[in-house]
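Ticket reopened. Same input as before:
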Amino acid sequence: MRIVAHLDMDGFYAAIEERDAPQWRGLPLVVGADPRGGSGRGVVLTANYPARSYGVHSAMPIATAWRCSERAKREGRPPVIFLPADMAKYRRVSGYIMALLGDLAPVVEQASIDEAYLDLTPTGSFEAATTLCRRIKDRIAAEERLTASVGLAPNKLVAKIASGIQKPDGLTVVTDEEAETFLAPLPLRVIPGIGPKTEAEFVRQGMSLIQDLKRFSKEELTAMLGRRGADLFDKVRGRDEAPISAEADIKSIGEQETFAQDSREAGMLTDRLMAMCEGVMVRVEAEGVSHFRTVVLTVRFADFQTVSRRRTLVQPSGELRTLQGEAIKLFLPFLDRRANADMKLIRLLGVRVEHLTKKGEMASSEPIQPSLWH
Ligand code: TTP
Ligand code: MG
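Engineering reply: fixed in the latest deploy. New output:
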């Protein structure tokens, strides 16, 4: 039997800002785009818990968050404090936390800027692992003055769901015997891999809880969802064999920008795109990545229609010039009718690199599955 912990920092960016500016402690706080008195563009990156009680959440348009704040103000509650993101600071804090986890746990897999899986099997029992998780939370509180929520379970799937169930500052233990009953009453969407579309389809058929899917055989689920269906059969029963690996790689590095005004002005747009490529390469370097093989361009039009185009290189590259050249080639068709039939204005551009190779690893020139070329 394995013992796996999933740790996820609470309200990460907002918690760091709150810690560093004591005058805001306890007040609703949002990190994200400039709200510009309600006409701001761009989105909320995260909100602290008081701001969440106003209905604000990650990825919400910043103008909507502004309206939530105005409404609270009218009701006599404190308005939201809006702050720009300080990514360099958040990455630095993330680095400290990951290093601390590395000191206390034998195998740590960083899953994002603020979450990690720990293999605690060597502790020998759920009791011993629980004690260690308390120590980890105490250390993070003492050294970083931040809180984390932890899930402890027999595998990654259940640990991840458990860490989210008692946020903030939670510690939720689900043993092997408890896993299936723990999951049963939860909504389907907590299962990674069940997106809004799949969920909506099940809900349409009257199924909204994990236990509702247990009536299907593996064959039935496969018929419905293909290979994902077979996985789902195991997941709804709390089974998951995914290994924890310290070397789990970042899958992509990207930047995007929402413009102050929608535009089709070629000079401005290509300048911004070239600058974004530079930003991406700075992070590629900082993450210890030496090569990328795929370049993805995202365009969001003024009406929010969002399109991605990707190109996979024959040979992996680590050059800014290559990234910029590929990004331009992917972008030019959007400036005319080739990829923009209605000549719509552009609201947002994004560029990211995928199929990354870390320094010291061998870059592969093997063909990448053809579905990636569209
Ligand atoms: P999350 O762990 O999803 O969110 P959180 O830490 O802010 O809040 P909690 O875990 O307590 O629910 O994401 C970690 C950070 O990643 C978050 O602080 C900001 C950033 N982020 C974005 O930039 N965009 C997003 O859409 C999301 C969800 C997060
Ligand atoms: Mg978090």
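Residues 369-374 have pLDDT under 50 and may be disordered. The chain has twelve helices and 13 strands. Please confirm and we'll close it.
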